[in-house]
Specification:
InterPro entries: FTHF_cligase-like_sf, LUD_dom, NagB/RpiA_transferase-like. Residues 113-208 form the LUD domain. It holds the Pfam family LUD_dom. This is LUD domain-containing protein. With 211 residues, the protein is of the alpha/beta class. It has one domain (35-209): Rossmann fold (3-Layer(aba) Sandwich), CATH 3.40.50. It is 23% helix and 25% strand. The chain has helices at 4-16, 38-51, 64-75, 107-111, 164-167; strands spanning 55-60, 79-82, 97-100, 115-118, 122-124, 129-132, 149-156, 160-161, 178-180, 185-187, 193-195, 202-209. The strands form 3 sheets. Strands 1-12-7-4-2-3 form a 6-stranded parallel β-sheet, with helices on both faces. It has a 4-stranded mixed β-sheet with strand order 8-5-6-9. The longest helix is centred in the N-terminal third of the chain and has 14 residues, at 38-51. It is globular, with a radius of gyration of 22 Å.
Length: 211
């Protein structure tokens, strides 16, 4: 016996039987409103990251080890969480104990780590957004959600795009994508901002200029 749902769907099919084919959507909109100049795109990313209360630094391959050493020292970090394939020279000058990610590490173990240093998949200038996809220089999603201090390195210009439409074709939707715009934060009904609710309380972004 036909159910009410079947009867309704049958009526809809009959009503649409003679309907014309839907036209193909047009996508003639601009994919970005930003200059093609890589320096301008990087400046915009820096500005929007800072607007979201991320602490932004700029450096080169020659100086990144000293910069990361200084940032961890200023934080007073005694330990740093390391994804599987973080470039070794990034932390070659750092003093904190390195905690290499392993499947046996629990959220409680990760909560004891002072800082985590990762790479990223992509950064979007117009929205000030960092995208992680669980790549080998980023590690599991929990690495960047539990520790209170996250230092994220963005290679520029290869990992920087101007806009979201430019970012989407470069991302794999089957991977565990995490989109970050500033440190973790929320607001209550009186708009009092609280940081560190469901992620790091402090986000530092290092814009690494490639030679």
């Amino acid at each position: 016996m036909s159910t009410g749902r079947d009867r309704v769907l049958a009526r809809i099919r009959r009503a649409l039987a003679d309907a014309p084919e839907a036209p193909e959507p047009t996508r003639s909109y601009a994919t970005t409103h930003t200059s093609d100049d890589p320096a301008a795109v990087l400046d915009l990313l820096h500005e929007n990251l800072a607007d979201y209360r991320a602490v932004v630094h700029r450096t080169t391959e020659d100086d990144i080890a000293l910069l990361l050493m200084r940032l961890l020292a200023e934080r007073g970090s005694q330990s740093v969480l390391v994804p599987p394939q973080l470039p070794p020279h990034w932390l070659s000058a750092a003093d904190p104990t390195r905690i290499h990610d392993r499947a046996v590490l629990t959220p409680a173990d990760l909560d004891q780590v002072a800082s985590v240093v990762t790479g990223c998949a992509l950064a979007i200038a117009e929205t000030g957004t960092i995208v992680l996809d669980g790549g080998p220089d980023q590690g599991r999603r929990r690495l960047t959600l539990v520790p209170d201090h996250h230092i994220c390195v963005v290679r520029a210009p290869s990992q920087v795009v101007a806009s979201l439409p430019q970012a989407m074709p470069r991302l794999d939707p089957t991977r565990p994508l995490t989109w970050i715009s500033g440190p973790s934060a929320t607001s209550d009904i009186e708009l009092d901002r609280v940081e560190g609710v469901h992620g790091p309380r402090t986000l530092e972004v290092v814009l690494l200029t490639e030679s």
